[in-house]
Amino acid sequence: MGTLQDKTVFITGASRGIGLAIALRAARDGANVAVAAKTVAPNPKLPGTIYTAAESIEGLGGRALPLEVDVRDEEQVRKAVNRAAEYFGGIDILVNNASAISLTGTADTPMKRFDLMMGVNARGTFLCSQICLPYLAQAKNPHILNLSPPLNMQAKWFKRHAAYTMAKYGMSMCVLGMAEEFRAQGIAVNALWPRTIIATAALQVIPGVHPERGRTPEIMADAAHWILTQDSRATTGNFFLDEQVLSLAGVKDLSGYAVTPGGPLQMDLFLD
After folding, report:
1. DSSP code, position 167
2. Which of 73, 189, 212, 222 has the lowest tally of Cβ within 10 angstroms?
């Protein structure tokens, strides 16, 4: 298996959840991790800050740089990316993990929430990719990984939450376009999405979702690790599912990732 040792990984939304799990998996290899997120003070409902994440990363043998960043803000992103590149000597990998969600219909989605989802998901992904691009172009095995779903263009995925679907698919359209745009430069651009729901703290505030029927964030971290250690020129333009990736990595038994061993699993959105 490949390694991320001495690679610099810029991860948005890395203070908790899947982003943090990916950061900790990279740290176990001895990677450098730029923790780019908004949370700097503890929140009783959503534990974890950029500083606690950095402490955990360094506890596993990685190097960490906590960066307070709102991915909607161009100047904040530019300063954070440049600081990370200066601090670590470049950027090898960008993980666009930061996301905002509201599973609401058209009449029940305030424009402020619409703008938040479009700003964080679609715009934030595009912005971070754009600003990281000069550094990625200089890296030996550069990757962009978006935590976004396959482009399943069926009406059922729009009718209950059109705004969220539009915003999330915006991240996936970045993969579709940028993978071809950057192919000649050898910059891989891929998407990763879970087959089942992933039990994170943020999931607990979404109605109708049962975290006990999900898997732990570590399944996404292990899948991301495999993708990010592949040859960037040979692995690009893919819309991966976590189960598919782990199968390619030779992992046959996924039971260890289940929140409730042996219990039923709830499939994630956008998958048939």
Report:
1. H
2. 212
Nearest to 187 by CA among 143, 221, 231: 143
Q: How far is CA 128 from CA 12, 45, 47, 92, in A?
A: 9, 27, 24, 13
What is the distance between the alpha carbons of residues 149 and 239, in angstroms, rounded to a whole number?
7
CB 209 within 8 A of CB 197: yes
Helix (H, G, I), strand (E, B) or coil at 11: strand
* Backbone CA torsion sign across 176, 181, 183, 186: negative
Q: What is the pLDDT along the chain (272 residues), one digit of tens a residue?
A: 699 999 999 999 999 999 999 999 999 999 999 999 999 998 888 889 999 999 999 999 999 999 999 999 999 999 999 999 999 999 999 999 999 999 999 999 999 999 999 999 999 999 999 999 999 999 999 999 999 999 999 999 999 999 999 999 999 999 999 999 999 999 999 999 999 999 998 777 677 788 999 999 999 999 999 999 999 999 999 999 999 999 999 999 999 999 999 999 999 999 99
Q: What is the pTM of this model?
A: 0.97
Q: Which residues are catalytic?
A: 164
E strands, the chain, in order = 8-12, 32-37, 63-68, 93-96, 143-146, 188-193, 239-241
Among 264, 270, 271, CA closest to 214 = 264
The token duo for 51 is 């500083």
Closest CA to 84 of 9, 137, 148: 9
Q: Tokens standing for 228?
A: 């990010």
Q: How many residues does the chain have?
A: 272
